[in-house]
Amino acid sequence: MMEKRSVVFISVLGTLGGLLLAIGMCMCLLPEWNAFTPGVVLAVIGAVTLLSIWPISRKASGKGIPHFTGLHFAAILLGLLGALALGVGLVHCLQTVTTFGLAVGIVGIVLLLLAVLVGRKAAGKSAIAFNGKRVLACAIGIVGALIFGAGMCLTMVWGSAYLIPGIIVGCGGLLLCVLNMVLRLNNGSKAP
After folding, report:
1. Does 168 score more than 90 pLDDT?
2. Which label site among 73, 100, 151, 188 has the fewest CB atoms less than 10 Å from its CB?
């Protein structure tokens, strides 16, 4: 069980990293902002901030440095390819939904799910057991992701009049996603 101070720090770091990544993505994907290069820099800073949560949470929970095997690297590769495919699919569906964009996005989601399964196998964990707490945490995570996506749509698709409301809605969704992680960590559940 982590100390409250560590949970708060990880939550703040996750929210900050998610915001930086999302704003950087908006800067890259909206041509009228004319901010592609600064957007890439901001998105990379956000991604690095989010990636730093893993070693920090391991240290805070008293775990040591993990031993990496070929399966760990396969899970990382699947995750990166899945995220890339999902991003390409989203970009192709940004203005007009296309069959190619949907297909590539779905392939990305499948690769990300495979990365979770391979990662669990690499860590020597059994299949994911479902109980009330896990289902609640997953439901909160799904709702948070949907609200976060709605905020991004408000910001990116529906025009500059919705920029501030989109950021506020996106922050609310991001906080729910972070709450999902905190619930899982505090209930003794380990992240997949």
Report:
1. yes
2. 188
